């Protein structure tokens, strides 16, 4: 048996109207078309469902039993459809973002505030983790998008560059910075550098660039997070090279900031999402905010 929803609804419309003519008017079909659908139901069930007279149609015993079952089935399907539709609506009205700690604490709050003003109906959930954790959250479906310096992603993710940031030298100072200055890579020669771990993709890019320029620091001290690097510099343990997306974080510390040039090195900042996942209206709207505001964060 392979009854369609259309056939079942046609049968129920006749049962409820007590007439093929009235039923056809209610469902906006021809009487002949409605009769064909009902006959198809009877054929598949192997039973006559209506006693037909010149004045009216009445359900047979088989028809009454099938009508009770059919009404229950359609009600359950309608309820399920409404529930799934509501779930889809809630999904479209939420945005789950995973990002590294410094991005979460110093870049995203301003952008999320702007986004919430424009999209007050969207519920935002922010999750912070290290770069690998951000990828895992997006791959598992726990987050809709991930933000960070993704030099390479797994096959299950797609990345889109939304900004790029130059690298800057951060040095100890007497007071928080009022502006971003300029310097060159050779100024790092013979200094003590606070770095990220050597396997960090940002640090690998920095080390490659230093090697290419022949700039060798006197000593390096790796730490795990950029926020720690900034605090170590403020405490006088050395200098650091970090992307300019950390300008906002540096403004809270007694450090100096100088963009490194001759030559300048820029790193791509990416938004990652699950391959094949639908792009909701909330995700697209947040992309627009990212593209607009991210470039301003390095000034």
Give me a quick take on this structure:
The protein is of the alpha/beta class.
Describe this protein's structure:
The chain has about 300 residues and is of the alpha/beta class. It has 3 domains: about 5-90, Winged helix-like DNA-binding domain superfamily/Winged helix DNA-binding domain (Arc Repressor Mutant, subunit A, Orthogonal Bundle), CATH 1.10.10; about 95-160 and about 270-299, D-Maltodextrin-Binding Protein, domain 2 (3-Layer(aba) Sandwich), CATH 3.40.190; about 165-265, Periplasmic binding protein-like II (D-Maltodextrin-Binding Protein, domain 2). Helices cover about 45% and strands about 25% of the residues. The protein contains 10 helices and 12 strands. The protein has helices at about 5-15, 20-25, 30-45, 60-90, 100-120, 130-140, 200-215, 225-235, 245-250, 280-295, and strands at about 50, 55-60, 95-100, 125-130, 145-150, 155-170, 180-185, 190-195, 220, 240-245, 255-260, 265-275. Strands 3, 4, 5, 6, 7, 8, 9, 10, 11 and 12 form a 10-stranded mixed β-sheet that branches. A two-stranded antiparallel ribbon has the order 1-2. The chain is rod-shaped and about 105 Å long. It starts with a helix and ends in a 6-residue tail after the last helix.
């Amino acid at each position: 048996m392979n009854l369609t929803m259309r056939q079942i609804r046609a049968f129920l419309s006749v049962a409820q109207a007590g007439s093929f003519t009235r039923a056809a008017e209610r469902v906006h079909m021809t009487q002949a078309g409605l009769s064909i659908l009902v006959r198809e139901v009877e054929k598949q069930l192997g039973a006559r469902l209506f006693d037909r007279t010149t004045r009216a149609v009445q359900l047979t015993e088989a028809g009454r039993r099938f009508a009770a079952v059919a009404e229950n089935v359609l009600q359950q399907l309608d309820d399920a459809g409404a529930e799934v539709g509501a779930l889809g609506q809630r999904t479209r009205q939420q945005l789950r973002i995973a990002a590294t700690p410094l991005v979460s604490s110093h870049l995203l709050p301003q952008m999320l505030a702007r986004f919430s003003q424009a999209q007050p109906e969207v519920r935002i959930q922010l999750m912070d983790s290290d770069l690998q954790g951000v990828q895992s959250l997006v791959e598992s479906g726990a987050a809709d998008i991930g933000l960070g310096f993704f030099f390479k992603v797994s096959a299950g993710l797609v990345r889109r560059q939304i900004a790029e940031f130059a690298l800057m030298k951060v040095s100890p100072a007497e007071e928080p910075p009022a502006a971003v200055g300029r310097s060159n890579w050779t100024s790092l020669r013979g200094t003590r550098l606070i770095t990220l771990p050597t396997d960090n993709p940002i640090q690998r890019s920095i080390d490659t660039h230093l090697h290419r320029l022949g700039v060798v620091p006197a000593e390096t001290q790796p730490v795990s997070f950029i926020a720690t690097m900034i605090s170590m510099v403020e405490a006088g343990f050395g200098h650091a090279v970090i992307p300019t997306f950390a300008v906002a974080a540096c403004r809270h510390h007694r450090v100096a900031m100088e963009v490194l040039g001759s030559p300048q090195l820029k790193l791509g900042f990416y938004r990652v999402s699950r391959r094949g996942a639908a792009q909701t209206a909330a995700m697209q709207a947040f992309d627009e905010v990212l593209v607009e505001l991210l470039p301003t964060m390095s000034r």
